[in-house]
Design goal:
Elements: E1 2-5, E2 8-17, E3 20-29, E4 35-39, H1 49-60, E5 64-68, H2 73-76, H3 79-82, H4 85-100, E6 110-115, H5 117-129, E7 133-139, H6 148-151, E8 158-163, H7 167-179, E9 184-189, H8 201-218
Parallel strand pairs: 4-5, 4-6, 6-7, 7-8, 8-9
Antiparallel strand pairs: 1-2, 2-3, 3-5
Helix pairs in contact: 1-8, 4-5
Length: about 220
Amino acid sequence: MQSIHPTGLSQLVRIPVDHVLLEGMLDLPAKPAGLVLFAHGSGSSRHSPRNNFVAGVLRDIGVGTLLMDLLTPVEDSDYQLRFDIALLTRRLLQATQWVQGHPEAAHLPLGYFGASTGAAAALRAAATMGDAMKAVVSRGGRPDLAGQASLVKVRAPTLLLVGGLDTDVLALNQAAYALLSCTKKLSVVPGATHLFEESGTLAQVACQAAAWFGHHLAD
């Protein structure tokens, strides 16, 4: 299902990976400045209201988005697969290759937005992509799960967003941040817990993510 409007394109897509089809929603403004692929966290999906909120803000500044599931519904019922970073990374890379072959998106500079375990997959995939990945943003992520070997290889400018009250995850982000040698920033959102459910905190995440992608995708 595809619809093309003067304002851009909105398309429900099915991406072939590992002999299965993953569903996603590809949305492109009329003249996109880039495209951000979303890697959701454990137990979430492409319908995540938090990721969709951030995606809407990105599209408002002219950045396209691809919100997708990295696991099928059956696979997602297996708790262990939710934390299989190697599997999630491989599928994110396969989705990236699919995007690079899409006629409406092949020319666009790319970014990753990862939440929770999805952030680990985004960083590990970015390490593989090298200079072809232009920016990464992690929201309440577990970048530590990407592993030291991958973190030291990331070249894409990386923004780590963590809630100030999410103390355990903050410590993990600080350790991962120290291993990154790329352009980087660790931003602590005051008063926010892990899911950024407190008033105004998710808006801060979206604003900072939009600024990061807007700047680095343009570069």
